Amino acid sequence: METPLLEEDKPNTTASGNTGSGLLLLRRVSVESKKLWKIAGPAIFTMICQYSLGAITQAFIGHVGTLELAAFSVANSVVAGFGYGLMLGMGSALETLCGQAFGAGKFTMLGIYMQRSWLILLCTALLLVPIYVFSAPILILMGQTVEIADAAGRFATWMLPQLFAYALNFPIQKFLQAQRKVMVMACVAAIVLVVHVLISWLVIFKLGWGLIGAAVSLNFSWWINIFGQSMYIFISKSGGAWTGFSLQAFADLWGFIKLSLASAVMLCLQFWYLMIIITITGHLTNPLVPVDALSICMSINGWDAMIGLGFNAAISVRVSNELGSRNPQAAKFAVAVVSATSLSIGVLCMILVLTTRFNFPVLFTSNIEVMKEVSKLALLLGATVLLNSLQPVLSGVAIGAGWQALIAYINIGCYYFVGLPAGIVLGFKFNFGAEGIWGGMIGGIVLQTMILVAITLYTDWNKEASEAENRIRKWGGSVDEN
């Protein structure tokens, strides 16, 4: 089914020569940019709000004590980060399936897909419970000090409700994103963020609950987020995409699990990669200061990464919708426009980080040594911020087209066979410390980004449109449409 051209999408037949071609290109870029920002703007805002839940809590904890900050950072980055990455990755299978089904007009399949994803992610959350409960000894085995590991373990146990919130949240997000209902997500996220600031201040400072208070505020805020989005879906029926709970959610589960696992491996390898820095840094002599400094940098990097993830969501929706609608050239053009836009923003963000490197650490800590270490690491943070602008976009292209398995292999090779060993060698063998660990791992990101650029440039988009049609027939053929 070809998507009919809107009036704004039709070619300008009155223009001629190079001038006409240039005006046509500018008009196409303008039209695509509007489509991009209608998705990316609210998606970026939503991502920033949701990420800020943990970052704001970290800022509160940073003013409680150095040990508390280190424990929160390790638990949130390593333990909760493990669960976040796995749940987000498995939920991202819906970006391919829901996006292409929506583009093909098979709306009722979106609700079925979401329910299947809920089943799989909730079961996965149950399997992850022991990791949270026994996180203290696990962290000790990974090289963390007993003091940090014990405090982080207590915090992680209190964070179990958040784990199950992840299992419901990410399928809901992908369900709404595929339909471009991102403004709903943004409104809910804004309300939750305001509530979270008030709750965190109350339980951490006024009631003096410390790390336990941090866990309570995070759990509460994530479940409010799920409640708000779910009420919208259940009440509005989401334009026919939600038709109620169905036994069809239990059909074809194995095939769905395989695609979810491929998506999980692809994204988890990316999320865990930089989180590993915190764990490795714990092996350095006197690790409290470098761990705290890195956690602050990772917090800033995480905020910036939310911009990249917003563009990731936008391009995955654009590519999957256009491929599902059998418009391969439109998908190709969307990739070019989103990449150029995101890269431009990445340059600006890098400049901002470098020019404020002596100022932003005070927002997270009052320890002078930690502030100095953060300022030294800011150069590497700037480089990572720049990479954040392009790498997530290319990953979003992969999700929209359904290349998860291929990208998973690329991530393993670039991150864990190149970047991680390089970071360990530079950090410990050549005594560059945290800077060496992070610098080596940046090399892996650069290599992976170069490979993704090459794959995207040489993609046969007509073939990808055919693959999307086959995928829709395989997953949606048994469902009657309204």
From TrEMBL:
Kindly state one GO CC term assigned in the UniProt record.
Answer: membrane
Which chain regions cross the lipid bilayer? 36-61, 73-97, 118-140, 152-170, 182-205, 211-235, 256-280, 300-321, 333-354, 374-394, 406-430, 436-458
Localization in the cell:
Membrane
Q: How does it sit in the membrane?
A: Multi-pass membrane protein
Which domain of life does the protein's organism represent? Eukaryota
Q: What keyword terms does UniProt attach to this protein?
A: Membrane, Transmembrane, Transmembrane helix
Q: Quick check: keyword Transmembrane helix in the entry? A: yes
> What is the similarity comment for this entry?
Belongs to the multi antimicrobial extrusion (MATE) (TC 2.A.66.1) family.
The cross-references to PANTHER family, in alphabetical order and at most eight, read:
MULTIDRUG RESISTANCE PROTEIN
Q: Indicate what this protein is called per its UniProt record.
A: Protein DETOXIFICATION
Whose protein is this, by species? Nelumbo nucifera (Sacred lotus)
